[in-house]
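Appendix C reproduces, verbatim, an entry submitted by the partner laboratory led by Prof. M.T., so that reviewers can inspect both the input and the predicted structure.
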Amino acid sequence: MRWVRIGVIGLFLLAACGAALGGSVAGRDAGPGTGAEGDAAGDGVEDPETGVEAAGPSAPPDLTATAEIRRSFMAPGSVTVAVTNHGDAPVRVTGVELVSDSFAPLGVQEFDAEVPGEDRTRDLLTAYGEAVCPDGVDSTAAPSTAVLHVETEDGAAHEVAAELSYPNGTLDRLLREACAAQAIAAATAIELGELTAAADGTLEGG
């Protein structure tokens, strides 16, 4: 009887080893990127409640920008930033900041403007700060960037740094005009000295 029991135990051990070996081979045959349930790994994140893999965040949109002067809409201290959307889907611009060593920073200016896709352009009237005039009225604009804060159709927020062309004739013109205004204001400035009382009771300034 003892030999019979040993034989039965040996058969069970052989069956267990065969099952383990078969599972290991099956796991290798399933290929890389699969889990215990045979789900392939994707780039997104699987929702634990629905089991559906959500898409990852969208890529930044393909946008460019130029500095323009639109005579019909120009206001002092502003430039038109013309934003072109080279993608297929529209994007919404929520903010624009002109970054340049030639103009004092004003921070991000809020917008709510949709730019259609397929190489269409939207003009955004953007204010610029006080001019920096190292060469007086002969100053030229430094390399500048329009930083665009945008939202894509999936609601994702992106920041796109659109470099403006350099040299830039539009910014050169605006800078020189601002520098000339600064020079005129400095040349015509009137300063009053200390007031003194005259003999007739009036005040006189030096």
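Residues 1-12, 14-42 have pLDDT under 50 and may be disordered. Additional entries are available on request from the coordinating office.
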